[in-house]
Specification:
Layout: H1 2-12, H2 15-27, E1 30-31, H3 32-36, H4 43-55, E2 59-64, E3 67-72, H5 74-107
Antiparallel strand pairs: 1-3, 2-3
Length: about 110
């Protein structure tokens, strides 16, 4: 579980890849040409980042005519959300235990 999560968050930890995921999530599947339009990035650089996302299971490509169209894999994004929810729940439980301990200390006579 942790190795899978590490790969996922490692891929998302790069600002460029995070921007690509955000763009694909917002605008839907796109070609590399569309992803590079209006940016200073080369097609080769975008392709490299998309391969990292693909290796982490976050993106997939599909040939449409002469172009490869890339899309976000929603199930992997759901995995990321699940990992974060689990970590958040663990921290919430720790904060609750700390709060209970502090309340006990405050109620003890001096």
């Amino acid at each position: 579980m942790f190795a899978e999560a590490a790969d996922l968050f490692s891929a998302l930890g790069d600002e460029t890849r995070l921007r690509l995921v955000a763009r694909l999530s917002q605008d839907g599947p796109q070609s590399i040409h569309a992803l590079t339009t209006g940016t200073a990035m080369s097609r080769q650089a975008v392709r490299k980042h998309l391969r990292v996302l693909d290796d982490a299971g976050l993106a997939r490509s599909e040939r449409r005519g002469r172009e490869m169209v890339w899309a976000v894999r929603a199930e992997r994004m759901a995995d990321a959300q699940q990992y974060l929810a689990q970590i958040s729940a663990e921290w919430d439980a720790r904060v609750d235990r700390l709060r209970a301990l502090l309340d006990e200390e405050a109620e003890r006579p001096v």
